[in-house]
């Protein structure tokens, strides 16, 4: 079976800025990955390479068995579901769309419905909305939804095209603790019931639910560690990634981080001793 993602010696350089350096990464069948790293560590750039929106300066990339350079990227993208808060840039168009039309539009990778919708599409959207517990939102327009509801609708939209790879780029950003747990429980259901591989980008390790199998840690464009989550989520690797003394503990099969040294504590000590 082909790898879901394969990157060999991938670097991304823009101007004199090295954004990604020597990335070697393989995602195999049945693996679900979380990508963690500080702001500016290169997470979005890495996703942009996976989706073919950015071409690496150096190295080889293959996604869903398609080597880049010999692949029709628009065709490949039909097999990749991408949910990002940047979709909100289109919120002017989305605003007046109904929940069900937004979900259906995922089949055509469009914002707005311009193609002929068949009964099968409506049925598939109904099923997705029921399984995401958003069927009660039918008829409502996007601008009247809460942030958590909007996020669920966009995830439903991404699944409408039955992608083989689903990228969730910081899906919990701006959500309260309850809405965040709902998104995590949805992610668990997707892994359990949809035939797709999940790539989940976040800043928070407690979002690594039991079903996520692997973790990639990025720091300044380089991989700190990548592999099965139990091997990667160590105090040492996390502290290096987040440049802060962190300790990991596990609760209900989820990792949590606590801070073991306050940032700037040395500085405060100096001021006090003056
Ligand atoms: N086209 C570009 N030209 C120059 N620098 C760029 C370009 N694209 C990204 N960068 C820089 O590369 C670094 C990595 O950016 P990227 O958006 O991939 O980080 P990130 O980990 O996704 O950050 P965040 O968590 O804040 O979203 C940043 O310092 C960014 O400013």
TrEMBL record:
Domain ABC transporter: 5-245
GO molecular function list: ATP binding; ATP hydrolysis activity; transmembrane transporter activity
PROSITE patterns attached to this UniProt entry: ABC_TRANSPORTER_2
Pfam families from the UniProt entry: ABC_tran (PF00005)
Bilayer-crossing regions: none
The keyword 4Fe-4S is annotated on this UniProt entry: no
Taxonomy, superkingdom: Bacteria
Protein's name according to its UniProt entry: Putative ABC transporter ATP-binding protein
Family (UniProt): Belongs to the ABC transporter superfamily.
Species: Parageobacillus caldoxylosilyticus NBRC 107762
GO cellular component terms given for this protein: membrane
InterPro entries found in the cross-reference section: AAA+_ATPase, ABC_transporter-like_ATP-bd, ABC_transpr_CbiO/EcfA_su, Metal_Ion_Import_ABC, P-loop_NTPase
Keyword tags: ATP-binding, Nucleotide-binding, Transport
């Amino acid at each position: 079976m082909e790898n879901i993602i394969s990157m060999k010696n991938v670097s991304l350089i823009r101007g004199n800025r090295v954004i990604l350096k020597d990335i070697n990464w393989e995602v195999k069948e049945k693996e679900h990955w979380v990508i963690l790293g500080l702001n500016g560590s290169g997470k979005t750039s890495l996703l942009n390479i996976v989706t073919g929106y950015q071409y690496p300066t150096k190295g080889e990339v293959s996604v869903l068995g398609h080597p880049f350079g010999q692949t029709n990227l628009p065709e490949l993208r039909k097999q990749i579901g991408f949910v990002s808060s940047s979709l909100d840039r289109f919120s002017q168009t989305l605003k007046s769309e109904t929940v069900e039309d937004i979900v259906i539009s995922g089949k055509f990778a469009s914002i707005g419905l311009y193609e002929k919708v068949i009964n099968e599409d409506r049925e598939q959207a109904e099923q997705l909305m029921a399984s995401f517990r958003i069927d009660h939102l039918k008829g409502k327009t996007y601008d009247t939804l809460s942030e958590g509801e909007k996020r669920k609708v966009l995830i439903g939209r991404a699944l409408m095209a039955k992608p083989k790879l689903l990228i969730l780029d910081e899906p919990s950003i701006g959500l309260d603790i309850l809405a965040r747990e709902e998104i995590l429980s949805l992610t668990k259901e997707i892994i359990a019931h949809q035939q797709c591989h999940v790539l989940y980008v976040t800043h928070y390790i407690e979002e690594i639910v039991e079903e996520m199998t692997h973790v990639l840690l990025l720091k300044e464009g380089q991989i700190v560690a990548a592999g099965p989550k139990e091997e990667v989520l160590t105090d040492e690797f996390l502290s290096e990634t987040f440049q802060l003394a962190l300790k990991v503990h596990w609760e209900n099969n989820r990792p949590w981080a606590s801070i073991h040294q306050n940032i700037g504590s040395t500085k405060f000590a100096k001021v006090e001793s003056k």
